[in-house]
Amino acid sequence: MEVEQVLYMKGGEGEYSYYDNSLYQKYVILKTRPILEEAVTKLCLESLQEDCLSMVDMGCSSGPNTLLPLWEIIETIDSTCSKLNQKAPAIQFFLNDLPGNDFDTVFSKLNQKAPAIQFFLNDLPGNDFDTVFRSLLPNFYDKLEKEKFDKLGPCYVAAMPGSFYGRLFPDNSLHFVHSSYGVHFLSQVPEGLVSEFGMPMNKGNICLAKNSPQSVHKAYRDQFEKDFTSFLSSRSSEVISGGRMVLTFAGSSNHNPACIYGTGVWIAICDCLKDMADEGKIEESMLDSFNLPVYHSSAPDVEQLIQREGSFNIARLEEIDVHWDANVEDGNQDLVFDKWARGNYVSSFMRAVTESMLASHFGSGIMDELFHRLFP
């Protein structure tokens, strides 16, 4: 499986598109908003003298959430500038120091205008950037003009297709890096999942599971370590000194029995495929030869990798529990969903996320039945 060719959210705006099935991801972004605000506020206090702040959202996808992190960043910059320029009772206060003191920096902070923002949307080339720039960006600019008027500097949005496991930007060109639900996807299916005799090592599974051999666990772990180290190394060259980075990705947890190997939804999909193989609807060999390029690392392992790579200091490292049917109401408490409706909700957004990978291996003809089985 060439991951760069098959890993993308389902495009367009149809029934099973990511555009119409990404409320869960929206919830994750909003759940982590305080961390994003804290990082951007600290960045602003140190970098508002810059004429332009360059930022990127890595793994942006193409749904209504694509520009949500940018809006949260703009709100934080607006709030920070307002606090720096807020009105107060008249006070005459003299600043005294020797002539060599940097008075310019002091007074520029007190009368700071918001800088321009250059915001890059990054994802693999298969991402539906057309929907973003055709359907989302015009409305975003309209909202920005109506609600922010001339309080902020100009905002420029551009696409940067490519894998974030390699270099994407010039040295020292980024002030802020954001990624939500992207880094648990690997750059490739790990090597070593087939024996020297051509036998599948993770037989009957499509991801790490309780019965996966230790060699499979090691192969996945090694691939994640290689990829995440490459991610950090690439960003260390691109991010300026004092820049910030906020990463959110699905992980594993020893504190939650359901999350020891990551998410149980992958296991549920595998169980459906097993049933279809038992019924002769797909070849068992097709199931045995398929492995997802997904790894859910633990918080301690992530911390160790960041410290080992050495380019970044950790300001906050937190585990956040999110249920798979989170945000099914999307804030509308009047809606009542039974377990079947919630199952359909999870099935639809998992289809939007995984169909490109599954269809490339098993064929698109089984997708309807597969995801109907997932939560019938």
Protein model, in words:
The chain has 376 residues and is of the alpha/beta class. It has one domain (3-82, 110-374): Rossmann fold (3-Layer(aba) Sandwich). Helices cover 43% and strands 10% of the residues. The protein contains 12 helices and 5 strands. It has helices spanning 3-6, 23-31, 33-47, 68-84, 103-110, 129-148, 214-238, 264-278, 284-288, 299-309, 339-362, 367-374; strands at 52-58, 116-123, 155-161, 174-180, 239-248. Strands 3-2-1-4-5 form a 5-stranded parallel sheet. Helix 7 (214-238) links the parallel strand 4 (174-180) and strand 5. Helix 3 crosses helix 4 (68-84), helix 8 packs across helix 12 and helix 11 (339-362) packs antiparallel against helix 12. It is globular. The chain starts with a helix and ends with a helix. Mean pLDDT is 80; it is low at 86-93 and 106-111. InterPro entries: MeTrfase_7 (IPR005299), MeTrfase_capping (IPR042086), SAM-dependent_MTases_sf (IPR029063). One of its GO terms (biological process) is methylation. Keywords: Magnesium, Metal-binding, Methyltransferase, Transferase.
